Amino acid sequence: MAPTHDALVARSLAAVWHPCTQMKRHEAQPPVAIARAQGPWLYGTDGKRYLDGISSWWVNLFGHSHPHIQAALVDQLGRLDHVMLAGFTHAPVVELSERLAALTDLGHAFYGSDGAAATEIALKMSAHYWRNTGRPAKSRFVGLAGGYHGETVGALAVTDIAIFREAYAPLVRLADTVPSPDARGAAPGETAQDVARRAAAALEAWLQEHHSTTAALIVEPLVQCAAGMALHDPEYLRLARALCDRYEVHLVVDEIAVGFGRTGTMFAHQQAGIRPDFICLSKGLTGGTLPLSAVLTTDAVYAAFYDDDVARGFLHSHSYTGNPLACRAALATLELFEQLDALNANQALAQRIDAACAPLSQHPRVRHARRIGMIWAWDVDTPLPDFARRYHQHAMARGLVLRPIGKTLYAMPPYALDDEAVQCLAHGALDALNATLQEES
Ligand SMILES: *Cc1c(COP(=O)(O)O)cnc(C)c1O
């Protein structure tokens, strides 16, 4: 017999350490036990239903329990569950690597299981490239203010979010940061492009001084999600690409959150028409079913490791590197982009969501209402210091999962919302905002 909701939650609190959570907070607001999920809906063990307005931390693309991905996984499970990828290979990893290369114009896919691992792989590869090419001093990194690239000790070096980093500062070899091209930083009369040029000028000044010790610049193209859905103009990426070329520094684009159609194009950096030296992928890569990450790079980087000397190779590994089940899930996800003509379908869906969310975007307390592709964000002008926590509770009470970042409310829903789900998102988000603002007095 299935345990009751309350019993399951109590056992979870006793046995499970939940991520990104001050566990004591759960005394007041316990976690919600989920029994199953279908499309954009999560179903609690208490029988309640919740719209997954943030795609379960940005991983789900086509809705939960998608039959096409399920069928691929069941098929794969009957053939090959796992085999180590050192000394072995298999059809799913080969096909996925070929497809990702065709989509990105890079290649030599290297696999990990999480986004943070992809960040670490790209940074290690970049520094090792410079070592292999006789320039070992180029071993440092630079990122953008407010950047987020994961939370393992190596990835934290380029993650500029104080609350995630402060306690671990002594463990981390901190990278430098350069100003973010966040378009909200525009002075009166300035365009987003002007902000991008100003930030690029700061990058140039930094590179002039530090290029000889710098391996790579890492950026989240077009949207710094964890910073609060900070958008920037593609001009920044064009200028950064040119500067990285001029100063001989790799450009790593972290598409972990924004890849796979989130910004309207398959990959965000494609809107700038640039070719990076490394791309990091994860989150939506498997449509939100299994953990998998990948790093793709250029032939030039690959060639610098290709040698008779073992130590010049890239000896990094994870036990589950290239797991066949995860690769099949990723292949099925890529097939769905074609079957559903997803990028075009999303344009129409986004317009329906725009229309439904117009009252929220025009709310007198909302600043910088913005959208790119399938990402919406609204900054809320409120003195409530714990706006995010309060808002989340009010949204959950309305059957809607939204977790603001600071005072930025955002939605990043699966690409599979019918009219009922669109209305739930738009009305729930607005009602929850009004209910939260009521608590100001
Ligand atoms: C989520 C995220 C990561 C880290 O991915 P994990 O799988 O959580 O380790 C890295 N970069 C960006 C841009 C992300 O959004």
TrEMBL record:
Participates in the substrate recognition with KAPA and in a stacking interaction with the adenine ring of SAM, annotated site positions: 20
NCBIfam families in the cross-refs: bioA, PRK05964.1
Residues with N6-(pyridoxal phosphate)lysine modification: 283
Protein name, per record: Adenosylmethionine-8-amino-7-oxononanoate aminotransferase
Cofactor(s) this protein cannot do without: pyridoxal 5'-phosphate
Residues annotated to bind pyridoxal 5'-phosphate: 115-116, 254, 318-319
Phylogenetic placement of the source organism: Bacteria, Pseudomonadati, Pseudomonadota, Betaproteobacteria, Burkholderiales
Protein family (similarity comment): Belongs to the class-III pyridoxal-phosphate-dependent aminotransferase family. BioA subfamily.
Top enzyme class: transferase
Subunit structure: Homodimer.
GO biological process: biotin biosynthetic process
Primary location class: cytoplasm
Alphabetically ordered keywords of this record: Aminotransferase, Biotin biosynthesis, Cytoplasm, Pyridoxal phosphate, S-adenosyl-L-methionine, Transferase
Source organism of the structure: Acidovorax delafieldii
Substrates-to-products reaction catalysed: (8S)-8-amino-7-oxononanoate + S-adenosyl-L-methionine = S-adenosyl-4-methylsulfanyl-2-oxobutanoate + (7R,8S)-7,8-diammoniononanoate
EC number: 2.6.1.62
A Pfam family per the record: Aminotran_3
Function of the molecule: Catalyzes the transfer of the alpha-amino group from S-adenosyl-L-methionine (SAM) to 7-keto-8-aminopelargonic acid (KAPA) to form 7,8-diaminopelargonic acid (DAPA). It is the only aminotransferase known to utilize SAM as an amino donor.
Entry's Gene Ontology molecular function annotations: adenosylmethionine-8-amino-7-oxononanoate transaminase activity; pyridoxal phosphate binding
Residue sites binding substrate per the record: 57, 148, 283, 317, 403
Gene Ontology annotations for the cellular component aspect, listed alphabetically: cytoplasm
